[in-house]
Amino acid sequence: MKQLVSRRKLFNPLASSLFVSRSKLALALILAIVSPVFGQTLQEDEEINDAEIVGEVSDGRPAPPPEPAELPDFKIRRAKFHQLSEHRMIFHQVEKPDLPQAKMVKPQMSEEEIEAFFDSEEFLKMQKEAAESPLEFAAVSATVYDGEKTYLRWWHEGQSFEAWSNLDFNHLSGFHEFKGRGKRFAFFMGLGNVDTKNSKLEISHPQGPRLPELSERGPAYFLLEGDETNEDALIFMDVLHDLYEKDSDRLKKAHEERVKNRQIREEELRKNPPKKENAKFYFWKKGEK
Description:
25% strand; extended; eight-stranded mixed beta sheet; alpha+beta; 11 strands
C-alpha cells in the first residue's frame, strides 16, 4: 500500500498513517517543528487556492427539445415494414427529392465586432493563458460509498493510479473543464454509487485507511497505487480537491438541484410514459436524377 497523500504532499516516514490537509495550517506548523522532513514554510501553506471551474455547473435541467425537422414532400415508390414489440420500423424507397439549400447560420457578431475582439486585451489574455497552460485531458473512475468517501482510479501516460478520497465525488460532477496550479484540465468521469448500508448484496471494495473527517481536516486523499512522486499525474487530483475546498457550497447546491430535477423527470415519466412511435426511414438510389 502506498503512503498517504495530501494536497500539500507532506509525508511522515515515522507515521505512515498520518493524513495532512492544506487547510489545517496549525498541523503543518507542528509537523514542521517535529521533523525536518516537513520543509514547507508557512508562506507556502498560505498559497492562494486558484482552482476554478471553467464554464457553468449543470443543475440537471433538461435542454429544450429541438425543433422538428422539415421533411421534403417525398414520393414513395415502395415500403417495407419490420414489426418490433411495440412499434414498427418503416423503410420507404422514394424518388430523389428536391432538397432545400442549407440554411446559412447568421453570425452572432458582425465582421467589425469580430475584428475588434481579435484586437482586444481579452483575446490576447486568452491566447496567453492557452499558451502558458495548454488543455490537458484526463479520465477518472469514481465510486462513491454511502455518500461519504470515494474510491478513485485514473490514468496518466499509461500509468494507473488508485486512491481513496474523503469527498463525495457526486459533488464534483456537472462540469468538464477546470483549472488551477497553472494547469487546465478537461476530464471525463465515470461515476457510480454504492449503498453498503441498505444493499442486500455482499459488497467488497479495495481496502483503504480510515479517512479523516472532511469537517476536521478538509479535502484530502490517500494514494493506494501509483507513483507518489509523479507530480504531473497527481496535480489533476490535487486541483479537484482544491475546487471542492474553494467552491463546496456551490458544488453541493448544484448536486442537490441535479438530484431534484432528475426525480422530477422520473416522476413525470412514471405518470406519462412516452408512447413509442414508428421509426421511419427514407432512401433513394444513388446516382438517381
